[in-house]
Amino acid sequence: MLRKFIFSIDEFYHIYNRGVDKRVIFLDHSDYSRFTKLLWVCNHSQAFVFRDLIKDIPSKNIFDFSADQTLVDIGAYCLMPNHFHLLLHEKVDNGISVFMHKVLTSYSKYFNAKYKRTGNLFEGVFRATHLDNDVYLQYIYSYINLNPVKLIFPKWKEESGQENFNSAKTKKFVEGYKYSSYQDHQGIKRQESKIINKEAFPDYFEDKRDLKEMLNFWLNYQDESIG
């Protein structure tokens, strides 16, 4: 079922969803890997069967698959044990709706088959927020990339800047977290870098130091009035 939400072409959106009843939706590395690959292969209009798609790629590397035209531009993403965040740019009419329908349906089928379960995996239709100003858009860049901090400091928003908050440990953890786009924005070469399209988003970060500075700012920001 496609979301009844009006997305406007050339606008930016924060997309979020979590497991039904807040259940864990990524149980091991292969689950994270499958969802990440779906962000790549679902970003085109044609239908596909994942296992058949692999067979047609000589290298057997899903990131060697290329689509003629993508549905959306992905600016940032983060996968957490029971939820995920995406920063998307609407390229074509219904692009985000079709893209998300393909990703969530494909992953649900994979997950249910693997773990021998039935029923909905995600908590209803995905949530979407229109990012209609630069401040909010820049904040979401940082918010998405900083989400993994919750895994080591669940109350980091309340404790950041306090003595018991280990900022160095936090930064190291974020930089090493594989299931987000942070490493791609830092210029680290990996196959997942193909997922994001930096050119489709405002050039807030002239180099990787700009993003680090912004992350440092939000990491120690005490006023939670935004978001």
Automatic annotation (TrEMBL):
Show the InterPro entries listed in the entry. Transposase_17 (IPR002686), Transposase_17_sf (IPR036515)
Q: Where is the signal peptide?
A: none
Give me any GO biological process, just one: DNA transposition
Which terms in the Gene Ontology molecular function aspect does this entry carry? Answer: DNA binding; transposase activity
User: Which SMART domains does this chain map to?
Assistant: Y1_Tnp
Q: Where is the Transposase IS200-like domain positioned along the sequence?
A: 8-147
Q: Which domain of life is it from?
A: Bacteria
Mind telling me which Pfam families this protein's record contains?
Y1_Tnp (PF01797)
- This chain belongs to which protein, by name? Transposase IS200-like domain-containing protein
- Organism in which the protein naturally occurs: Candidatus Vogelbacteria bacterium RIFOXYD1_FULL_42_15
